[in-house]
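thought: fold this chain, then report.
action: predict
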Amino acid sequence: MTEQTYALSAETADFYEATFVPALFGAWARRLVETAGVRAGSRVLDVACGTGIVARTAADRVGPSGSVTGLDRSEAMLAVARRVRPELCWEKGDATGLPFADGSFDVALSQAALMFIADRPAVLREMRRVAGRVAVQVPGRLSHSTGYRVFTEVVAEHAGPEAIKLLGLYFAAGDPDELAGWFAAAGLRIEVFDTWMSAIWAPSLDVFVAGELLPLGPVAQDRITAACRAPMAGFAGIGGSVAVPIEAHLVVASAAG
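observation:
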């Protein structure tokens, strides 16, 4: 197996930052950083950082006595991260071979990324190698994420196999037993395993659909959006906005033994 990657343009990275960070990942980042015990003076690594919301949130906690580094494979994502917070350290690199010495950090964090990497224990082993504490946050089970289950059923009728594969990938790290097993295989002892219901907010159903299918580029979004209106009406809010329920897992661990 190889890591699942999708070519991301500068426009796509901008859309991600402007749409998904306020819609979901900003709130997730605060929960991740707090639960992981990031504090003033901590040395923090954000693995597969995207446009850097976790790194930015951590930086606000560690203050001038700490340090934060964000690492990602996508130059487009890193370009946005550098533009938003140029004073932080942003590096291009692979999560399965982190370019840092053993014990370089106090905490290694990763949000909404583990499911896109085929060898998940390898990523967790690398995070354990470079940090004393590891914290990961991922979408949970599709079966428990009611809004996404409905959305996936509609997409299955109106889009090709790549779209179905992508939506399945979003929840590929969501099985609690599998997730715990990857931590154990990486030599990590779980201290916190928190599962809760969250929701992704979007100003319209059109924006939600465009965002969820973002890595694929142009697809039949108009047709999918139209087909979603009736079955997803229960998630509609004020002014045409939507709040789509999604399960999430947050795991905090340290080196076993």
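thought: worth noting. The beta strands are 43-47, 67-72, 89-92, 105-111, 131-139, 188-202, 242-255.
final: tokens above.
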